[in-house]
Amino acid sequence: MPVTASQPAPFYFLGAIFKRKADMQDNADIERLRPRLFGLAYRMLGSRLEAEDVVQEAFLRWHRAGSEEIRSVEAWLVTVLSRLCLDRLRAMQTERQRYVGPWLPEPLLSVEQSPAHTSELVSDLSMALLVVLQRLSAEERVGS
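Above: the chain sequence. Below: its structure as tokens.
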């Protein structure tokens, strides 16, 4: 049975985190960051379960951090999440060195797409196309 992006991720301790840090930001403000953080983690790791774990760890670290140290919750969470993903990628690379078969990212099916998600996807695809075109020589670009 395929897992869809519209299903809520199992963030077990977030209710307690939101109650303790309610003075920092509204629950809705923090909740709106979840899809962005999950999308970033999924694009970096290629696994839904790994992405959910890393997002959960980022929220737990945010909870442990002092609120006076953080100027922008969103920037802090994205930075921590990126670093956690890089650490996890390094660990996964050593695991894959022992694996004999090919590694493919898990497909992520999306039922509903918001306009913000669609514009983010278009931006990602445009950037990917530019990167590919920059790697091609002039002759190869003409042929494509």
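The radius of gyration is 18 Å.
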